[in-house]
Design brief:
Layout lengths: L1 H8 L1 H12 L3 H28 L2 H19 L5 H27 L4 H30 L5 E3 L4 E3 L1 H19 L7 H6 L3 H16 L26 H9 L8 H22 L2 H9 L10 H13 L13 H28 L1 H21 L3 H12 L2 H14 L2 H51 L13
Antiparallel strand pairs: 1-2
Helix pairs in contact: 1-5, 1-6, 1-7, 2-7, 3-4, 3-5, 3-18, 4-5, 4-7, 5-18, 6-7, 6-14, 6-17, 11-17, 11-18, 12-13, 12-14, 13-18, 14-15, 14-16, 14-17, 15-16, 15-17, 15-18, 17-18
Length: 466
């Protein structure tokens, strides 16, 4: 999860600082801001099938390592199309681990501890968020560059930033070589003995006692015949994994989950990706001292960049206060799941989703309306931190479906969310220059409406899916 965030959100720092080297047009910036998410959309369905048929661990390990390779190569890109293609391939790989991790983690826990475990993972996700502003501060404020004659490029800090942000994913990919496969998945495909070996290892780590003292000697097979054949026609396997999600029992749930994911990602990521650039525009040249809206200030900045004043486009580094405000957003990503972990068993996931989205949406509307730029930024921080709700939402989806459908259900919902990312981020990149106020208003209202949709999730579907 941390890797997915670092890989996708880093574009918010990369595009402004690479402007002078790459001479992006406003259309190219809009496309590139959404490219990683597009790769995630077109591949999530594929990875969902593979995670349910070949294993959670295998999918995550392969995608993390190849994602690192594509990302490193993209740091040497010489033109728009090369950068686009490599970031698209990187996005394809990100989706393999980004969604599968929920099913993988959830299947190591019972319903009693699953929600808290996912919240615990979200804390680690929050740590990854905090890392990025420090990475940016250290790299962008370091004055250096060197020329690569073979590629005819000047290698600068924004290129190194790409490699730094992809490195944690590579490390995680290597660590997966020593981590076990999900015991629940192993049971679902009839590999009972392997599942028992994993459970013994978990027992040994948790209790400190010898594996031989594990009280369970044999496990009753729950093999899912729907996953039995790797030789079946692949399209048939995909259909067999997907069809149950849209039958009478799960149709309403699946449609509602997908709709909510789409809207939250479209509105939230639409605001989050452009957060560093908007805040930096406000803070540079003491614009924050003016009695104006953040959209008026940002509109003026973009007009200077894309109306021929190229010197204004050359952002070598961000204002120090930009990193500080970004750090606040990331701290919310860290502390939010900590708070949620204490109350989730008492109030439930639906209540948390509703409260968070309504408050974030209201703050997003206020950020556009106030004529105090600094106060507006503090309001803007909350919808930019929408990701803490996504982590709760991931746990909710895991609880709504049985094991044999869980991997695909999570991936289908993630497809919807990432499609929302593509639409939201892409449109924001295009229309912020001319319709900043209208676009941010729409994002805030969309979050509020989606919060109320949470109450329509069928509560009888929250089943024990050990």
């Amino acid at each position: 999860m941390t890797n997915a965030h670092l890989e996708t959100a880093s574009i918010g720092y990369i595009l402004p600082t690479s402007q002078c080297d790459m001479n992006w047009t406003i259309q190219e910036r809009g496309v590139l801001s959404a490219t990683g998410f597009l790769g995630m959309v077109i591949s999530s369905y594929f990875w969902g099938v593979l995670s349910d048929t070949t294993g959670r661990k295998r999918v995550m390990r392969i995608t993390l390592i190849f994602g690192f390779i594509f990302s490193v190569i993209s740091s040497f890109a010489t033109n728009f199309w090369m950068f686009f293609a490599l970031r698209l391939l990187n996005g394809v790989c990100i989706s393999g681990g980004g969604a599968t991790i929920f099913a993988y983690l959830g299947e190591f826990h019972t319903s009693k501890t699953r929600d808290r475990a996912i919240m615990g993972a979200s804390i680690v996700y929050g740590v990854g968020h905090i890392i990025m502003p420090f990475f940016a501060l250290a790299i962008f404020n370091w004055e250096w560059s060197f020329y690569i004659s073979g590629l005819n490029i000047v290698y600068k800090h924004w290129r190194l930033f790409i490699i730094v942000c992809t490195t944690p994913g590579f490390i995680c990919g290597l660590l997966l070589y020593i981590l076990p496969e999900s015991p629940k998945y192993l049971l679902s495909i009839g590999r009972d003995e392997e599942a028992l070996i994993v459970l013994r290892k978990i027992y040994h780590i948790n209790s400190g006692k010898p594996k031989e003292t594990f009280p369970v000697k044999q496990i009753l097979s729950i093999k899912d015949t729907g996953n039995k054949s790797k030789k079946e026609n692949y399209l048939k396997v995909m259909w067999n994994q997907t069809k149950p999600l849209f039958n009478r029992n799960y149709l309403r749930t699946t449609l509602l989950v997908c709709l909510m994911q789409f809207v939250v990602y479209a509105a939230g990521d639409g605001m989050y990706i452009w957060f560093p650039d908007i805040v930096n525009s406000v803070m540079e040249n003491n614009s924050y001292q003016n009695e104006s809206t953040i959209c008026h200030i940002y509109d003026t900045k973009l007009a200077n960049i894309f109306d021929g004043h190229s010197s204004d486009a050359c952002i070598g580094k961000f204002e120090m206060s930009t990193y500080q405000y970004s750090l606040i957003v990331e701290l919310i990503y860290l502390l939010g799941p900590v708070l949620y972990s204490f109350v989730i068993d008492r109030v439930g996931m639906i209540c948390i989703i509703w409260t968070s989205l309504v408050l974030m949406g209201a703050a997003g509307v206020a950020a556009v309306a106030v004529h105090n730029p600094v106060l507006a930024i503090y309001f803007y921080i909350w919808p930019a931190a929408f990701g803490i709700v996504i982590q709760v939402f991931g746990g909710l989806v895991v609880s709504l479906y049985p094991t044999k459908l869980r991997g695909m259900a999570v991936n289908i919902s993630q497809i919807s969310g990432r499609l929302g990312c593509v639409v939201g981020v892409y449109l924001m990149g295009f229309i912020l220059k001319d319709f900043c106020m209208e676009s941010l208003y729409c994002c805030g209202v969309a979050l509020i409406v989606t919060g109320f949709l949470a109450f329509f999730i069928p509560k009888n579907k929250l089943v024990d899916c050990e």
